[in-house]
Amino acid sequence: xxxxxxxxxxxxxxxxxxxxxxxxxxxxxxxxxxxxxxxxxxxxxxxxxxxxxxxxxxxxxxxxxxxxxxxxxxxxxxxxxxxxxxxxxxxxxxxxxxxxxxxxxxxxxxxxxxxxxxxxxxxxxxxxxxxxxxxxxxxxxxxxxxxxxxxxxxxxxxxxxxxxxxxxxxxxxxxxx
Length: 177
Fold this sequence. Notes:
Largest sheet: none
Order of helices and strands: HHHHHHH
Number of domains: 1
Strand content: under 5%
Shape: globular
Structural class: mainly alpha
Helix content: over 70%
């Protein structure tokens, strides 16, 4: 008897998928302005990082910016200190992210500036890594050299967090639809 009683109650307890969607806040897909501002924040962070390089590492960085050799991170001289090698690899990754954002922003602005920017599925992991890396580096700037953490960088950090959250939430929300 109790078994039948449970069966009768289970349909009433079950929540519909629509009820799950009701509690979610609306999904705002970032447009070209948000991504352009994120790119600007990454450029500012890149500038601060270049200042930390030794003179020899700066020369290597300038040469890479002129040539854009694809295998630069592997060709960094081993006699360079590990800090400079690490910073150069980070700078290359930041620059590649900036280039990706610029291409997508320019394409979107050329066609329809009101549209959000859509990235290819293969680019999403790169973007997530870029945003995560940028946020960690901005946190380090704030903790190590707080005088360099300008209002623009602090606001940029909030924007980076928002974009990263948006990228990580988007696939989950799509699955609910």
